[in-house]
Amino acid sequence: MPLFALRYRHPTLDKQLTKSRLRSEVRSMCKARRAGVPVPAVHLLDERRGCVFMERLAGGTVRDRLRGMYQKRKAGASPGEPGEADACKPYERGVAEELARLVVRLHDAGVVHGDLTTSNFMMSGPEAGGGKMHVIDFGLAGTSTSNEDRAVDLYVLERAVATTHPGSGAFVREVMSVYKNESKSGDKVMQRLAEVRARGRKRECFG
To answer: Is 54 helix (H, G, I), strand (E, B) or coil?
Structure first.
C-alpha cells in the first residue's frame, strides 16, 4: 500500500509526514494484533518508497454484506411495512456483535481507529454466516486511552452506518449495546458519546 507524494507540499516535509504516518499505522496495527484483534499481518515497512506490504485478505467488506442484506429485506417488504426493523435478524445480529467486540478490543488495547466504517471491516466465509472478521485501514489510527477519543470513534461509526445503510437502526443499537456491556469503560464512553452526538447536532443546526 503506497502513499503517493503530495505535490503541493514541500518534498522534505512530505517525506517526513509520510514516514510518520506509516510508522503510526504499522504501530497501531501491531498493537491491535497483539491484543487479539484480527488485522492484516504486516510483512514489510519500506519508508524510502512510502509503502507498507501486508497480508492480502480474501472475502468481502461488511459494507457489501449489509448492503446486500438490506436490499433483499427492502425488496421483500410488504407495502406499508416500516423500512427499519425493530430487531436485528440473526445474521445481522451476529455481524453487529462481532464488529462491536473488535472495537472493544481495539479501545481496551489503547488504539483508536479513526475511520470506523463498514468498509473497514472485512469478512471471510460464506455470506450466509460464519467466517472471520478483520479490521483494516489503520491510516488514521493512533494510540489513546481517552474516553472522548473512543466516543468520537463510535460516533464516526454510527454516522457512517446510518449514511451508508438506510434501515440499519437496529444494527447500530446492537453494536452500541454490546460495546457498553463488554468494554471496561463502556458506561463512561456511552456518556461521552451522548455529548459528542449533541455537539454533532449543534454543528448540523448552526454550521
So the answer is: strand
For the chain, list residues with pLDDT below 50: 78-83, 128, 206-207
- Tell me the whole-structure pTM to 2 decimals: 0.84
pLDDT tens for 127-167 read 545 568 999 999 999 999 999 999 999 999 999 999 999 88
Active-site residue, from 115, 149, 153, 187: 115
Burial of 177-206, coded b for 16+ CB within 10 Å and e otherwise, reads ebbbeebebbeebbebbeebeeeeeeeeee
- Measured between alpha carbons, how far is 130 from 107 in angstroms, rounded to an integer? 24
Q: Of 181, 95, 93, nearest to 131 (Cα)?
A: 95
> What fold characterizes domain 60-206?
Transferase(Phosphotransferase); domain 1 (1.10.510)
Domain ranges of the chain: 11-54, 60-206
Q: For cell 456511552, what's the residue?
A: 190
Does the annotation count 115 as an active-site position?
yes
Residues 6+ apart with CB under 8 A from 44: 51, 52, 53
